[in-house]
From TrEMBL:
GO terms for molecular function: cytosine deaminase activity. Its EC number is 3.5.4.1. It comes from Chelativorans composti. NCBIfam families: PRK07583.1 (NF005759). The keyword Plastid does not apply. It comes from the Bacteria. Residues 144-389 form the Amidohydrolase domain. InterPro entries: Amidohydro_3, Metal-dep_hydrolase_composite, Metal_Hydrolase, Metallo-hydrolase_Enzymes. This is Cytosine deaminase. SUPFAM superfamilies: Composite domain of metallo-dependent hydrolases, Metallo-dependent hydrolases. Keywords: Hydrolase. It is an enzyme of class 3 (hydrolase).
Length: 428
């Protein structure tokens, strides 16, 4: 289909998730799939209109989804796998490879790789992205933060960008932690904490939430990225939120070990997480790659959190990319459709995908405080993706490399493959 300029046009017979469509006249709403037909009008201002007399294009029931929200990535590590190689074992082997590569992260190197990630995400239909940035030094002295601040400004009309200062939880013990939080707030960032097994204590977490409260910071955790049932960081975080009354947004990524806890403990643990209002992000690509990874041995266990049980208890759950072409996951290209396809299969979401998929958009938007994202709504910018599929099976069976991405009512140019080449020629 040759789209050409498309502002002031009506896309007739588009099939959309009804739960993500606001202020639009839906018809033939199928309760079983959650999909409905709509005529989607784009005005000359690039926004969605309830109706229009503009020329029409018949989509023939093709599916339209809102542009993606990728809520957990690592732009500062992306595309380093050709330098680092892949880990022999699991998470901490990948950490060691990444740390050994850290001296190579010059401002020029970071700029090149982070821009590549943004171009990929944008071309694939992502409109908002949150990246974690390793923050060993003070944020204002960090090349990654300096590069991110510049790119956030340069990309502001194309991508909504957020950054998390990723640090080990033990940093809260340092005398300069107050200054760290001040700088994160000044940079418009989110306070991050990596919580290895055994590092979380009530005192550390309570102090972390106290710092966040004083500086008006939300918190985004890497927690329980392990299959060890003794990894109970998520439970301790929930207890600290309830004990301190922390009022900011709390996001917890990974949370794998909950799946190895005794069934008798799971219900009470999940209830605590729900009571604390924690948002949980499952990151299946990296977790299935790293968890239960031993050379020469087939993995026995799956590195995925209890998404069904958490959702049933009222915990907002969604999925994100995490690592891309680095030692934590040596594949991928910042494509949230790939993540969704994997998640549906891995977590067995297929029996209720029509209910799950809209929640993934809405929950990601809520976790990042981006209420205007993740919807196809009258008055909103015409930011959405047209896929050559008319039902969920068709959508989730193909990579859809030829998807059509609309931003502000205009179709993004395809751009071909040239933007991948600089990294494919690098040696290890």
């Amino acid at each position: 289909m040759n789209w050409g300029p498309v502002r002031s046009v009506v896309l007739r017979n588009a099939r959309v998730p009804a739960a993500l469509a606001d202020g639009l006249a839906l018809r033939e709403h199928d309760a079983a799939t959650g999909l409905a037909l709509v005529d989607l009008a784009i005005g000359p201002d690039g926004r969605i209109s309830p109706s229009s007399n503009a020329p029409a294009i018949d989509l023939g029931g093709r599916i339209i989804l809102p542009c993606f929200i990728d809520s957990h990535v690592h732009l500062d590590k992306a595309f380093t796998v050709r330098r680092t190689g892949v880990p022999a074992g699991g998470l901490f082997d990948a950490v060691q490879l990444s740390m050994a590569d850290a001296p190579n992260r010059s401002p020029e190197d970071l700029t090149r790789r982070m821009e590549m990630g943004l171009r990929m995400a944008h071309a694939n239909g992502t409109a908002a992205l949150r990246t974690h940035l390793d923050t060993q030094a003070q944020p204002c002295a960090s090349p990654a933060w300096q590069v991110f601040a510049r790119l956030r400004d340069e990309w502001r009309d194309r991508l909504t960008l957020q950054a998390v200062a990723l640090m080990a939880l033990e940093r809260v013990d340092d005398p300069d932690f107050e200054e760290r939080c001040h700088q994160i707030a000044e940079l418009g960032g989110i306070l991050g904490a990596f919580v290895p097994t055994g590092s979380a204590t009530a005192d550390r977490l309570d102090r972390l939430f106290g710092f966040a409260t004083r500086h008006g910071l939300d918190i985004d955790f890497h927690v329980d990225e392990s299959l060890d049932p003794n990894a109970i960081g998520l439970e301790l975080i929930a207890e600290s939120v309830l004990r301190t009354g922390f009022g900011g947004r709390v996001v917890a990524g990974h949370c794998c070990s909950i799946a190895t806890r005794p069934e008798a403990e799971v219900e009470a643990l999940v209830a605590k997480v729900a009571d604390a209002g924690i948002h949980v992000i499952s990151l299946p690509h990296s977790n299935l790659y790293l968890q239960d990874r031993t050379p020469g041995r087939t993995p026995r266990l799956r590195g995925i959190t209890l998404v069904h049980e958490l959702r049933a208890a009222g915990v907002p759950v969604h999925f994100a990319s995490d690592n891309v072409q680095d030692p934590f996951f040596p594949f991928g290209e910042f494509d949230m459709l790939e993540v969704i396809r994997s998640s549906v299969r891995i977590a067995h979401l297929d029996s209720a995908v029509g209910a799950w998929l809209p929640e993934l958009f809405l929950n990601a938007a809520a976790a990042l405080r981006l209420d205007s994202h993740g919807r196809i709504a009258a008055g909103n910018p015409a930011d959405f993706i047209v896929f050559d599929a008319t039902d969920w099976y068709g959508l989730l069976s193909h990579a859809h490399a030829e998807r059509v991405v609309f931003r502000n009512g205009s179709v993004l140019p395809s751009g071909g493959m040239d933007w991948r080449q600089p990294f494919e020629s690098e040696s290890r």
